[in-house]
UniProtKB/TrEMBL annotation:
Name by which UniProt lists this protein: Pre-rRNA-processing protein IPI3
Subcellular location: Nucleus
GO biological process: DNA-templated DNA replication; rRNA processing
InterPro entries: WD40/YVTN_repeat-like_dom_sf, WD40_repeat_CS, WD40_repeat_dom_sf, WD40_rpt, WDR18/Ipi3/RID3
Coiled coil: 429-463
Length: 501
């Protein structure tokens, strides 16, 4: 199956090494596992396999300053990177270009993955950085901290050589939370025309508009919120807490219009004073319909690519899969009991996943160059180096093009091109003699037709001349008769006049 959705999860035990695993979303079976890792929440990130390059996995070890790098083609560690200090959270650019890491001291590092160059490192917060997220277009980096602040950083400014010696200034600071920030989710859209959700220990989830740098709505929950999941269409989001409850919040509501019909309208948007309290006693039934009781502390959430399934990872190592419209529990993944599911995401099955596809481009590969290349990852610099930054040497793999005239963005396929080429070119080359004979016969037919038309034209002209002469003679004859009659009448009148005299 070409579009095969899988579950990517990171399971971390209390003591000892953990595992990163891929499961089938439909059968819950284990497809692959990557061991020797121990990542904390927000300490796992990945880049999908695409554009002819194999994907990569990153896992920051919470007990040491080590970053483990994996690829989907083998279950062992591909690269161990020694970091300047232990990272509390990480984030990867969606195209796999940049890697960001936050520390317990509030510092943020920004590396280029292909070259390992440390482009920037700065003190972004007063306390530990708890979560980092790139926007979907990669133009901005968002950071949440235990100091209750959410900062938005422009990536282009962080990479600017002209301000290398200056302290980076954030695009904006969203500071309406009162306790540590636990999670951030970015909406679809190019920066800054997008919205974000942030959750906090202060029992609130806040919806922000980055284009106006303003707070749209505050959702107040009965318990502290630990993690979030947002539907791609931004119709609803899920907020989970450590008591095992998952709240569904619809960002639209139905009301009765002026004509009596039911219409849908957006929820919130009134700003700082707009607070929606979840679980109010005046709407107990509506709240119960939007509440999922997992029964165990929920530490990670994810929504399937079709937005029909909700995945909840618990501290007991169980992944529960719910149907979103009915909130019915469909099945559970119990392969990681005794662990804590610190990371949860859904993705299409990698085409280069170990044990599930042949990486060879030929039937009998003769060398390792016949396999799918992995996206280049260089060891990260521990300090900023001006010389390497000026040289800026990176390793990159150019995609192979079987046909240099083929445009990936065009629907005009190579088969259609060859078919049209044969239609216009091949008949003239294959039957040149036949074409000459047919052309001569066509010329003779046209000459005969021209002679026939000339003959018909002469006949028509003769008929027209006869008709014209007949009409002219008739008109002239009638005129003469009228003139002769008038002269005779005048003569008679003159004679009468003489007689009377």
């Amino acid at each position: 199956m070409l579009l095969h959705e899988t579950i990517l999860c990171a399971a971390t035990p209390t003591t000892g090494p953990g595992v990163i695993a891929l499961h089938d979303l439909q059968t819950s079976s284990t497809l692959a596992s990557f061991k020797q890792t121990n990542a904390a929440p927000h300490g796992t990130a990945f880049v999908c396999s695409k554009n002819g390059q194999g994907g990569i996995l990153f896992a920051a070890q919470h007990d040491k300053s080590i970053l483990n790098v994996y690829n989907f083609q083998k279950d062992q560690i591909s690269l161990k990177i020694v970091l300047p200090e232990k990272l509390s959270c990480i984030a990867v650019h969606h195209n796999g270009d940049f890697f960001a890491g936050g520390t317990a001291q509030g510092r943020i590092y920004l590396w280029e993955i292909a070259s390992g160059i440390l482009f920037n490192s700065w003190d972004a917060h007063y306390r530990q950085v708890t979560v980092l997220k790139f926007t979907h277009d990669g133009a901005a980096l968002l950071s949440g901290s235990e100091d209750s602040g959410v900062s938005v950083w422009s990536v282009s400014r962080l990479l600017d050589n002209d301000v290398l010696s200056e302290l980076p200034l954030p695009y904006c600071i969203l500071s309406d939370h009162t306790l540590p920030v636990t999670d951030i989710v970015c909406g679809i859209g190019s920066f800054p025309n997008c919205r974000i959700l942030s959750s906090s220990v202060d029992h609130s989830v806040k919806l922000w508009d980055l284009s106006t740098r303003s707070l749209l709505t505050t959702f107040q929950f009965p318990q502290p919120i630990s993690c979030l999941a947002w539907d791609l269409t931004e119709r609803m989001f899920f907020a989970a807490s450590k008591d095992g409850s998952v709240h569904q919040m619809n960002l639209f509501r139905e009301r009765e219009g002026k004509s009596g019909s039911h219409v849908l309208e957006a929820v919130g948007g009134a700003g700082v004073m707009d607070i929606i309290r979840v679980g109010d006693e005046d709407q107990p039934q509506a709240h119960k319909r939007r509440l999922i009781s997992v029964g165990e502390p929920v530490v990670s959430l994810a929504i399937s690519l079709t937005s029909s399934l909700l995945l909840a990872g618990t501290s007991a190592g169980i992944i529960h899969i719910y149907d979103i419209p009915s909130h019915q529990l469909l099945r559970s993944v119990t392969s990681h009991k005794g662990f804590s599911i610190t990371h949860l995401a859904t993705m299409l099955k990698p085409p280069d996943l170990i044990g599930h596809v042949s990486l060879s481009l030929h039937a009998n590969p003769s060398s390792s160059t016949d396999s799918i290349p992995v996206k280049p990852v260089a060891p990260f610099q521990r300090m900023r180096d001006t010389k390497s930054r000026e040289a800026h040497e990176i390793t990159m793999i150019l995609p192979v093009q079987d046909n240099v005239y083929e445009d990936e963005g065009s629907f005009y396929t190579a088969d259609a091109l060859l078919r049209d080429h044969d239609f216009f070119v091949q008949p003239a080359v294959a039957s040149a003699g036949q074409d000459a004979v047919s052309l001569q016969s066509r010329v003779n037919e046209l000459e005969t037709e021209v002679a026939r038309l000339r003959e018909q034209l002469g006949k028509a002209k003769g008929v027209n001349d006869v008709m014209w002469e007949t009409v002219v003679q008739k008109v002239v004859g009638q005129g003469k008769q009228k003139d002769a009659g008038a002269s005779a009448e005048d003569e008679r009148r003159r004679k009468r006049g003489r007689t009377d005299a």
